Amino acid sequence: MPSPPDSHAEREGLLLRTRWGKREFVPFDEMRALAGPRVMLASGTERALPESLRASAARALEPPAATGRRAEDAAAWHTYTAAGAWSPIRAASALLAMAEAASASDVHLQSEDGGVGVRLRVGGAMVEFASLPAATGRRLVAALKHLSGCLPYRSDIVQEGRVPRDGPAADVRASFLPTALGERAALRLFGRLLALDELGLDADAEAGLAALLEQPSGLVLIAGPSGGGKTTTVYAALAYLAARRSGAHLSIEDPVEQRLRLAGIPVDQVELSPERGLDAEAALVGALRQDVDVVALSEIRTAGEAALAVKAAHTGRLVVAGLHAGSATEARQRMLDLDADPQVLEASLRGVLHQRLAPEPCPDHTGDGCALCAGLGTRRRPAAELWIAEGVA
């Protein structure tokens, strides 16, 4: 069937002439699949497709698949977004898949002078992935906002959301921030939840942490710098406790990183929302009234949070809390600096695990697709320091 003169492929969709002589623009984002001479739309309807446009539609509906080889994936993805027909929604999904295959923890899209830079955080280091024209970058950010449940048409407000993905605890956390040059997007990818013996701690630190978690009550601090793996360790501790200890377990987080119940871990999670009055102190007060046996706090930041955490630990609960500190000794001093009662803290603090992620040469470096180091030649492993209070077995 010859193509009508005004039926043609555009950058992000097809302009089709209908049987009544009208023209209709069908975005690639709204197309579900090709079936012979017809295209299936997300709405459930179909459209006849001129033969001359089928190749463009097929290309747009099939972005490159992730291989785990970062340089190869970056080149294929850049080609897909740069030339001919493309689907911003599929490009965004392909980017997340490639980032996951490259063992990236974060994806950043930053507005720059004349374009948008796409970077991945791999092994703690930021690496370049692609550079996009400004218009392409804006469409990609809008697609990511759509996928994460945010408002694609608002670029002047801070927005946060989640990109739902298959599998337990696999959602991608998304954040969008207006800057002087345009929007900035940051997406946090989560791998599978790790067990205590998968954290990479040395044998003494792992055994000591397990001993602390066996305590019937008290405060256990997981301390370290930002990006040191504290949240991963807190989640591993919660999984360990849930498997060995009955009762009510509650985690207070800002924000919730991974959905524990979806992963089969019976822990209720509270996501803080200070703008609605649900801050950490209010959540801790509520937890004390909920007859819980184990309370986890993603991070102690204020004097009120410190006081309530110590109080909860002193009144028969086991409290596991993150804390920003440079060492195990500094963690105890930090609690005092936050006005925790010295006597109550001494009576309730069971121990401190301080950890950071230290780089080391990758023993099995095999190039760009190395599963251990993602091609960087180095990998990060926890370097831990454990302090245990006297009298704790």
Topology:
Elements (H helix, E strand, L loop, with lengths): L7 E3 L2 E5 L5 E5 L3 E5 L2 E4 L4 E3 L2 H11 L8 H13 L5 H14 L2 E9 L2 E8 L2 E9 H14 L11 E5 L8 E8 L2 E7 L14 H11 L4 E7 L5 H15 L4 E5 L14 E4 L8 H9 L5 E4 L5 H12 L3 E7 L3 H10 L4 H7 E13 L16 E11 L5
Parallel strand pairs: 13-17, 13-18, 14-15, 14-16, 16-17
Antiparallel strand pairs: 1-2, 2-3, 4-5, 5-6, 7-8, 7-12, 8-9, 10-11, 11-12, 18-19
Helix pairs in contact: 2-3, 3-4, 7-8, 8-10
Percent helix among the residues? 25-40%
Distance between the termini: 81 Å
Strand order of the largest sheet: 15-14-16-17-13-18-19
CATH homologous superfamily descriptor of the largest domain: P-loop containing nucleotide triphosphate hydrolases
Mean pLDDT: 89
The structure class reads alpha/beta
CATH fold assignment of the largest domain: Rossmann fold
- What's the overall geometry? elongated
Q: How many domains?
A: 3
- Flag low-confidence runs: none
Radius of gyration: 25 Å
Query: Could you give the order of the helices and strands?
Result: EEEEEEHHHEEEHEEEHEHEEHEHEHHEE
CATH class of the largest domain: Alpha Beta
The percent range for strand residues is 25-35%
What is the tally of beta strands? 19
